[in-house]
Amino acid sequence: MAELEARLTELIEPEARALGFDLVRVKLFGGAGDRTLQVMAERPDTRQLTIDDCADLSRRISDVLDEKDPIDDAYRLEVSSPGIDRPLTRLKDFEDWKGHEARITLAEPVDGRKQLTGDLAGTDRDDSVTIYVRGHGLTSVNFEKIASAKLLLTDRLIAATQPLSSEGAEEFETEDQD
Predict the structure, then answer these.
(1) Could you give the CA distance from residue 71 to residue 30 in angstroms, rounded to a whole number?
(2) What is the rounded average pLDDT for all residues in the chain?
(3) Long-range pairs for 4-8 at CB < 8 Å and ≥24 separation?
(4) What are the structural domains of the chain?
(5) Could you tell me which of 26, 88, 16 has the C-alpha nearest to residue 53?
(6) How much is the pTM?
(7) Tens of pLDDT along 85-111?
(8) Which positions fall inside the Ribosome maturation factor RimP N-terminal domain (predicted)?
(9) Which of 5, 38, 42, 91 has the greatest number of C-beta atoms within 10 Å?
């Protein structure tokens, strides 16, 4: 699966870049007959995508995948922004989101721990990620040893991220009050 995801990333990344987006994650999951190809991208300046951005990227990806046909089975294509409690997939993500709470799952335990939760403290020159783990202090792990990582939804994260637009929000608010 990792090899196929790498191939898909090679095909999808140029399409995202052509639209001015950074590719955050390409993930294929599910079994035969129920596969989903999840593509997360963002605008570098806002770290978000609009619905129109998602539609544009989805069309470009569909065209390329229809032509190259790298996936044997049927699948659903899901294109989205990474969201507020986003996955951290690139080394730069750990630096960009320094000061925010995250959960890091390691491929193998370090000091008897496979999961680290705490405030990100950034990255080091040797491609290590540093996190302040409550009760354990600063912990550094090589980026390559991270199986997965994501930001945790906190008031601090909500305050640091602003929606691109709140247009139409009042419509939903009045519907809920009826």
Answers:
(1) 13
(2) 90
(3) 4/28, 4/70, 4/71, 7/70, 8/37, 8/65, 8/70, 8/71
(4) 2-80 (3.30.300.70), 91-160 (2.30.30.100)
(5) 16
(6) 0.82
(7) 899 999 999 999 999 999 999 999 988
(8) 11-85
(9) 42
